[in-house]
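Open question from group meeting: does this chain pack into something compact, or does most of it stay loose? Before anyone orders reagents, we agreed to write out a predicted structure and look at it together. Recording both the input and the output here so the notebook holds the full record.
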Amino acid sequence: MSASSFFEKIGSFFVGLFKKAPTIEQQISATISYVAPLAVSILTLVDPADAGEADPIVATIQADLATLKAVTTGVTLTPSAVQTSESALNSINSNAAAILALASVKNSAKKTQIEAAIGLITQEANAILSNLPSIAAGAPASPSAS
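Structure tokens returned:
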């Protein structure tokens, strides 16, 4: 059984604080704010001598997060925005896996910490992904009550 994601929990937080459910866009924005620093933290965990391998991959994850933020901020998600979001989230997941495959990460003394950061990033990307299809189908996404 997997732990609840931040994305899933933020809905309950909004309801408790504001007495109304957040929009999917608000949940995504809050989740990006949570995940973005994790991507940067990976570079601080990789041995500086090996950062050249991880740096472009992390930069791609950061660019994907920026794309996701751009297509989900201040608008109601359209099918096109959902498709762009899905592409960005799938790219985040594949690039996260690429970081774990690096020899410099596999042999790192901080491998466990890197794996934990990557695990949180992919967990949140997957939580968002699992809520996007309902939007694409035209049904409103409801926040998960956790």
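Observations to bring back to the group:
Residues 101 and 108 are 12 Å apart (CA to CA).
Confidence is low (pLDDT under 50) at residues 140-146.
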